[in-house]
Amino acid sequence: MQVARNTVVTLDYSVTDLDGELVDPGQDPLIYLHGGYDDIFPLIEEAVHGKSIGESVTVRMQPDDAFGEYDADLVQLEPRSQFPDELHVGMQFEGIAEGADEDDEEDVVIYRVTEITDDKVLLDGNHPLAGMALIFTCTVTDIRPATPEEIRHGHSHEADEEDED
What is the pLDDT of residues 60-100, one digit of tens each? Predict the structure, then answer.
């Protein structure tokens, strides 16, 4: 069987930066519904299309192909008093980007705490890999036909099960 539209594909993968530094070891396999469902970056989906189990690909992605350019407007300095007592770097909070419509779910941003002082908290709404060119290396380890329900929902249900662990 080959990777084609409406197949569920399992990839063993790793991601490095251009210097070869590991940024994602891919500890768990990546399982997605193939065929333009936006379950995976388009360049990776394109590279994997037509491959069989055991075949590998390497995809070099510029920031626009992956997590986007770094947006300094998504960095905010907020008063420490607006946060819970238990606060540490790496915690995440949901918020609305400045100037965004509060009623629009697409304008919701996940902010990471990147720095804490006595009276201020620095939040960053960028993905941790934003602004980075990346090299995605993967091997196809499984391919199966998608179920009608997965096709209707536009994603693999195996991925849902993995998220519940």
Answer: 999 999 999 999 999 999 999 999 999 999 999 998 766 65
CB 58 within 8 A of CB 136: yes
Sign of CA dihedral 161, 162, 163, 165: positive
Is residue 20 left, alpha or beta, with left meaning phi > 0 and alpha meaning psi from -120 to 50? left
5-9, 25-29, 94-98, 103-107: the lowest-pLDDT one: 103-107
What does the alpha-carbon distance between residue 16 and residue 68 come to, in Å, rounded to a whole number?
16
71 within 8 A of 126, measured Cβ to Cβ: yes
pTM, two decimal places: 0.79
DSSP letters for 4-69: -TTEEEEEEEEEEETT--EEE---S-EEEEESSSSSS-HHHHHHHTT-BTT-EEEEEE-GGGTT--
Query: What's the CA gap between 40 and 25, in Å, rounded?
Result: 17
Max distance between CA atoms of the chain, in angstroms, equals 58
Q: Above 50 in pLDDT, residue 162?
A: no
Strand, coil or helix: what is 87?
A: coil
